[in-house]
Each structure stands twice: as C-alpha cells, then as structure tokens.
Amino acid sequence: MMKRRAWLRALVALPLLAPIGAAALDEVIGRALFRRAWVPAPSSTHANDGLGPLFNARSCAACHHDLDRTPVQTNADGAVSSDHLVLRFSDAAGNPDPVYGRQMQSAAVAGVRAEGRVMKTEQGYKLDGLAYGDLGPTIRIGALQAPSLRGLGELETVPATAIAKIAADNAGRSDGVRGRVNWVTDAQGARQVGRFGWKASQPTLMAQVETAFLLDLGLSSKGHPLPQGDCTARQTECLAAPMGDRDGGPEISPDIVSRIVAYLAEVGARSAVGGNSAGLASFEAIGCAACHRPSLPGTHGPVQAFTDLLLHDLGSALDGGATEPGVASTEWRTAPLWGLSRTLANGAGLMHDGRARTVEDAIDLHGGEAAFAKTRFKSLPEAERRRLIAFLTSL
C-alpha cells in the first residue's frame, strides 16, 4: 500500500501547465493508469503487479488503442496477434465453460499455460491448441471485437426510467420492433438497467471497467475480488501461481478504478448530423431510428448516440454463439452509431465481431426485429439510399 501511495504521489507531482481541480486531476491520473502496463506478481513495485495468471492484454490501452475500434491483426499463419479480439464461451443459458471459464485467455504468466490461440478464417474465428482439453459438449463460442470507448460517460447520464419507457412504448409498434431492458443485479444486490457491453450486461461504467480488468487482465477489484481472474477450479496450475492481492484485498484498488472511470467519462464522441437532414429523414422514415434513436435525454443535455440501450433480437445471421445469462445469443444491445466515421476510416469492421466491412454489409446482416427496416432500406431509390449511407458515414 505504501508503494502504491508513493507512486500516486509521484504522478500527482508531475509538472502541469496550470493548477487543476481534483476532478481534472483524477482524469489525468486515470489516463496514465489506462495506458499503464501491468506485470505479474510478485514484483518490486506492488502498485502495478497482479497481472493474470491468465490474461489477454497487459494494459487497457492495448485493447483500445486511442479509444477507437481498430482492425484485427494476424500473423502469417492466421493466428490473431491483436489484443482486442477475444473469444467468449457459454452454453445456451449463458453459463461459462467448466474448464475455460467465460473467455479464452491467450497469454499467461510464467509456469502457467495459456489457454489457446484464436485463428482467423474465411468464415470468422476459431480455436486452436486448447491447452486444458476440450470445451464442454454444450459450450458455444463467440468472437467479440473491442468497441470504441468514446462517449461512455454520456451514456451513463441517461435516466433508467427513460430507457425503460422506450421499451414499454415499443409494445404498441406495428413494425416488429420491441426491445427490452436487460435488468441486472449489481454488486450490492440492487436491480439496475444494464447499458454497457454488447449484451447490456453492465449497469455502470465502473462495473464495465472492473469486468474488463477481470476477464482481459486477470486483475481483481472490489466488484470482482478473486485474484485468479477467469481461471477455474480445474486449472490447478493457474490457482497455484502467485497472486497480487494485498492482505486479502483486491489487486486493483477502488481509487484506481474510479480514476480510470473518471478518464473514460470525460471522453466525448462525435455525432454531428451536419447539413445532411435528408439522410436523417430517410434514416427515420425507414425505421432505423426505432432502435438507433438519434437522441436520448441526459443529465447534461441530449445524448446523440443513435441507440436506445435496449436489447433487440436481430435474427439468426447475428447469432453470436456465446452469450450472457438471461440474454439470447441473437440479442444485442443497440450499438451506438456516433463515431461511425472513425471506425470506417480505421477499417475496423462493423458488428460485434467486425464481420461487416461496410454500412451496407451491416444492414444486410440485420434480421429479426430489424427485418422491416432492412426491407425498406433495400426498396429505397438508389439516390436516396446513397444519401442515407452518406449520412451514416458522416456520424
């Protein structure tokens, strides 16, 4: 603890251009912590050890370069070399694999075998070289590519009552759009609206950060206090590896988590409609705005994220395989469209696993509750369809 405090004092003492307040200081520290590389325990500096024993990345920034979505990189043999593409495991009900847990970790500390590799194929992604035997017979696999982290603080300001009202109002729609709230139980046992993650499984930005520490870096926190991360009871060498907990406390202190949250909460997102009012009108007319709502009420003003933060069933073409408890594998939280232009410019791909290379590809994958809007899009005159695409690619 003393070494952690010394590290924070040293960071605070860095020269600044002008005095800043406590909130701004938390953001500065949070930015540094987001980029910090964690190391396995034990190390000479306790404040930055505890990585693993199983993990996917050594830092938050490794998965979220510049906070944007970026393309998946592969080696010459097709093995994924990027940290921001992971494989999740679950049965149909969302229960994790009994051996490999919720996520495949492709790296490990010394003395522990990594769980395997992810290979990219023409059909998507597959497992290679599983180190601890086969998956359970009912286990499904799902690939997830790290999303942009811009605008998360604004999404957190949308009142839960507003999200629930959208779901209730959808019951009267005639186009098949429903959408539902993913009600989740937080660490204190309270029932809350899920709003973060591909399946809207996290109610707060803090819960989302703590889950990322657990699954991607193998670091414990107040919300996930076990230091072994995603390693299971059957992975004995993982359980025997050195852990970074301090006197029974978490490897990542609440102060560290709160400062990373403060940093992420201040990162805005681009959602400028500009002068393309005709494109927006077409977007609304064909029904896309039923789920991708251009604006939601927020504590500090409208949140122009183009989402309703609800779960929607998008049909068999978007069956993600693995899922979360209480959520069908074809259900997804409506992805915010703000910053879409940055994702397209990066060539990072769209949808949960990046399989869609263009906006048209992404629309074509939509089914289920979005089938009516997709049909109307395809029936638009060519000129109007181009205006709509131009509008979306400008967000």
From TrEMBL:
It comes from the Bacteria. It holds the Pfam family DHOR. Keywords: Heme, Iron, Metal-binding, Signal. Residues 274-395 form the Cytochrome c domain. Residues 1-24 form the signal peptide. PROSITE patterns: CYTC. InterPro entries: Cyt_c-like_dom, Cyt_c-like_dom_sf, Cytochrome_c_Peroxidase/MauG, DHOR. This is Cytochrome c domain-containing protein. It comes from Microvirga puerhi.
